[in-house]
Amino acid sequence: MSKSLAIAVIGATGTVGEALVQLLEERDFPVASLHVLAGSDSAGQAVAFRGKNLRVRELADFDFSQVQLAFFAAGEEVGRQYGAKAHAAGCSVIDLSGGLEQALPVVPEANAECLAGLRAPYRLASPTPVATALAAVLAPLRAALGLRKVTLTAVMAVSSLGRAGVSELARQTTELLNLRPLEPQLFDRQVAFNVLARVGGVEESGHAVLERRVSGEVKRVLAVEGLKVAVTCSVAPVFFGDSLAVCLETAGAVDVAAVAELLAQQPGIELVEQGDYPTVVGDAVGQDELYVGRLRAGLDDPAELNLWIASDNVRKGSALNAVQIGELLIKHYL
Q1: Residues 46 and 56: beta-carbon distance below 8 Å
Q2: Is 1 exposed, middle or buried (0-12, 13-18, 19+ CB in 10 A)?
Q3: Is residue 302 domain-shared with residue 326, that is, in the same domain?
Q4: Same domain for 149 and 277?
Q5: What's the mean pLDDT in 237-251?
Q6: pTM confidence score
Q7: Is residue 116 located within the same domain as residue 159?
Q8: pLDDT tens readout for residues 247-297
Q9: 129 and 213 in contact (C-beta within 8 Å)?
Q10: Which of the four, 72, 89, 160, 189, has the lowest number of CB atoms within 10 Å?
């Protein structure tokens, strides 16, 4: 990538924004100039990049015609309001917030080819970390297995709610270990030493808004006709790293050894041998790889495949996927 661009990172002081800036430097992303932006509460802070401290500027005052590519790693409302503004100014947008309407979800390992029919300025979305990890692992299997249904139980880290989630788990843990009364603030009940059966708002149907979003993103990215995706999202008292229990219904009897061989050949996937299994704390956190283990056929159905995925939700599921989308754009389209 010889072409360098003016880049903006919105939400640069959040957990995902910090990881974005770090990865832009680590991967030698072709940045001519980097603008780090956030809300008024964070304006004036410093963000380190390539040996310099960049001053965080207020998003509301920024002119997006100055940049060619913007990463939105702030809240949904910020993505909705300012993502559209950036796109209208001729800036390509990679949205991680879920707020930018009509943005095409992209997971480079699964649907990179979808960019070919688009025109600049691009309006793209990096899906939720759960959907990103799941789609990247299932992409090489979809044709071989003839996927019919995916049943997912996502055990998510508190960092899925950003820095506030990390702070809340730390605060609750401290209160409980010091035998002090606990009053939940961010979550609707105690999350420390507990597992919460849902994440965020719930629809009248009983499904969480996030669960519907994950299901839709997986379907759009994998583009398997007639694929059904059932999702349950829960929260565990883990700071970073999502764990996914996945059950696949396929078109015929599953050859587990052949699936293992296929996954082992995929860049970015680390297959853990039978008899062992990956965890977020021991394996995935801080890593770029997706860790897959516990491959097994169904107990009663030979056309069923079960597996376990561990990934870093902030680094791999959010920041790295967005940066890889940017790398694709610069290499082939911008």
Answers
A1: yes
A2: middle
A3: no
A4: yes
A5: 98
A6: 0.96
A7: no
A8: 999 999 999 999 999 999 999 999 999 999 999 999 999 999 999 999 999
A9: no
A10: 189
